[in-house]
Design a protein that fits this description.
By secondary structure, the protein is an alpha/beta fold. It contains 26 helices and 14 strands. Helix 8 runs parallel beside helix 12, helix 9 packs antiparallel against helix 10 and helix 21 packs antiparallel against helix 22. The structure holds flavin mononucleotide (FMN) and iron/sulfur cluster (SF4). The site of flavin mononucleotide has 21 residues, from strand 9 and helix 23.
């Protein structure tokens, strides 16, 4: 069924996708607000009918897709779309305890019916995050709400530090001359033309050891090779390169940083992926919560197009931005591809992998923003034995995790922001460089909502690489770090994680769809004193979610919860039935 729908979606091409027609006008400044569409319920219904006809799909299919998203308006005004202001409810702002005031001020200004919620705006370095008229604000901006509203001010003086421990930065290096930057592509595309030559370049990428930065750490060269080999090289079949810029992990803003400040590094990586796989189209799926990233990337694409027009670069590769609509699961690659097609974005079983059957059923490479951002460095100075990007890249790290990693540090640090470090760098070194913590911290939540909760006593053991985190029972993920303060009750933090999963579950598999809601209920009842938690029941629930879920949303959330149950046993114990009472069946 969904394969047929992919084919139907394909008929109108990437410039005319059902999803973008459902969501927004292509206005990049509209943020979470759908400014150009008349959104009374009847008009919305009629528009969906017309779209269903145009795409030869059932009305239920179109409605099923549209109703999934937070920021698609159904015209009833009961939805979270088209609010005048949005309050960030991500984990970092929760830990910073800034949002009660933010909400109070916004409700006083706009009325409660005009204030929505969003997870998260990626303003984790400053916290106190909110959006007005499609622009994001944070830190002390909440004191200027009246000015912002009256003057339609777009300026937000966001500030965070960007640091690196590398003598030769890879991801944080400034790009001063854009034309010169793309010269490398020009040289490589002239030097490596035949399939054998391109395979040699892929060998170099594999040799560099680059692994995907989106969380799973899959070898990038292997992924690209698999796409190259699909349907044979140089056949007239379509292939796509998709950049996953749906950075939804609360605490993470490194992809946002790259798109806002180094967009050409990301475009270059996608261009090279096109050269090495035979794809001619690059699609950047950027979350609507990042309006500035969309704006800067759009500007960079215009600059790229100008270089093509001037014949500074010879390429028929083209880029397209697709703006998301507020669904965490769209960061999962198969859900993301269905989202672009205009289908309901639920997770698909793999195989087939996207490189075999991806966007519109065509071979597709999906990579994270940071993965693409590393490519220019790797392919530089290729002919130099000692000084090639490949040899310098693989020399960083522990041999299995190579190169550098961006780490996002939230407002719990004295110097919050982005830090680029070599893989293998000690976590304690990062904390020292960030100046330690602003106030008392009892744990770090690292790697997003599905990453582990690391108590202070375990910090010494960890280095920033995939192996160290998994060997010690945690997860590097996208390497965002949120400080959990002493004042945060761990029982509340678990309830928050379950609530997030229940809200964001795509509903494809029962362990996650039902399990997350049962978990949320269990903890809410314990917190309100209605019913203590039965530890055996909870253990069964977490095991079922971990082993039985189709993707890492339902399968991953038991990790931070189990970490808390292990390391903060004494703190959460009062909310549990005692072992003696569970043995005797007492409630
Ligand atoms: C629930 C869930 C959310 C995800 N969110 C993201 C995301 O926001 N960005 C991202 O690059 N990868 C995300 N991923 C991983 C992607 O599915 C995919 O592995 C990644 O985009 C591949 O790129 P990489 O090989 O460069 O890491 C997510 C996975 C899951 C299960
Ligand atoms: S684990 Fe959750 S998000 Fe993932 S497929 Fe199952 S229901 Fe969907």
């Amino acid at each position: 069924m969904s394969k047929n729908l992919s084919q139907l979606a394909r008929r109108q091409g990437i410039d005319n996708t059902l999803f973008q027609q459902l969501v927004f006008s292509d206005s990049v400044n509209s943020g979470l607000v759908n400014v150009d569409i008349d959104n009374s319920a009847d008009v919305v219904k009629q528009q969906r009918k017309v779209l269903a006809k145009k795409f030869l799909m059932g009305e239920a299919v179109v409605h099923g897709a549209a109703s999934f998203y937070d920021f698609i308006d159904d015209g009833t005004n009961e939805h979270n779309a088209n609010k005048k202001a949005y309050v960030c409810n991500g984990s970092s702002c929760l830990c910073a305890n800034t949002q009660a005031t933010v909400k109070e001020v916004l409700v006083a200004q706009f009325g409660s019916q005009n204030v929505g919620h969003v997870t998260c705006l990626g303003r984790c370095a400053e916290n106190g995050a909110f959006q007005i008229n499609g622009n994001n604000y944070s830190g002390s901006d909440i004191t200027k709400v009246k000015q912002i509203t009256d003057q339609s001010s777009t300026a937000s003086n966001e500030s965070f530090q960007v640091q690196t421990t590398l003598a030769e930065p890879i991801l944080t290096a400034k790009i001063t001359d854009v034309a010169k930057y793309y010269q490398l592509f020009d040289e490589l595309s002239k030097q490596f033309v035949t399939k054998n030559e391109l395979e040699h370049l892929l060998d170099k990428l594999v040799e560099s050891g680059l692994r995907g930065r989106g969380g799973a750490g899959f070898p990038t060269g292997v992924k690209w090779r698999s796409c190259l080999e699909e349907l044979g090289f140089n056949e007239q079949s379509e292939k796509y390169i998709v950049c996953n810029a749906d950075e939804g992990d609360a605490g993470a803003f490194s992809d946002r940083y790259l798109l806002e400040h180094r967009p050409h590094a990301v475009l270059f990586g996608m261009l090279m992926a096109g050269l090495l796989t035979g794809a001619k189209t690059g699609v950047l799926y950027i979350r609507a919560e990042y309006p500035e990233a969309i704006k800067q990337t759009k500007q960079a694409i215009s600059e790229f197009d100008q270089l093509i027009l001037n014949k500074t670069i010879l390429s028929d590769f083209r880029f397209k931005i697709i703006k998301g609509a507020g669904a965490y699961i769209c960061g999962e690659e198969t859900a993301l591809l269905r989202s672009i097609e205009g289908q309901r974005p639920v997770v698909s079983v793999r195989p087939p992998f996207p490189t075999q059957s991806g966007l519109f059923g065509c071979p597709t490479v999906v990579n994270n923003v940071e993965t693409f951002g590393s490519i220019h460095f790797i392919f530089s100075e290729l002919n130099s034995e000692q000084n090639s990007g490949v040899s310098k890249y693989k020399a960083l790290g522990n041999g299995k995790s190579t190169g550098s990693k961006l780490v996002s540090l939230d407002g719990a640090f004295v110097h919050p922001g982005i830090i680029e470090v070599a893989m293998g760098t000690r976590l304690t070194t990062i904390i020292e460089l960030a100046g330690g913590f602003v106030k008392g911290i009892k744990a770090l939540h690292i790697g997003g909502p599905l990453g582990g909760v690391v108590p202070l006593c375990e910090i010494e053991k960890l280095t920033i690489d995939f192996e160290s985190f998994s060997d010690n029972g945690f997860l590097l993920g996208h390497a965002s770090i949120i400080g959990i303060p002493q004042s945060m009750k761990m029982i509340d933090y678990i309830a928050h994680l379950f609530e997030f999963t229940a809200l964001e579950s795509c509903g494809k598999c029962y362990p996650c769809q039902i399990g997350s809601v049962r978990g949320q209920e269990m903890f809410e009842q314990a917190i309100t004193g209605k019913q203590s938690i039965n530890p055996e029941l909870l253990s069964d629930l977490l095991e079922t979610m971990q082993l039985g879920s189709l993707c890492a949303l339902g399968g991953g959330v038991p990790l931070p919860i189990n970490n808390i149950l292990t390391y903060f046993e004494n703190e959460v114990a009062p909310y549990f039935l005692s072992k003696k009472s569970t043995a005797t069946g007492e409630q």
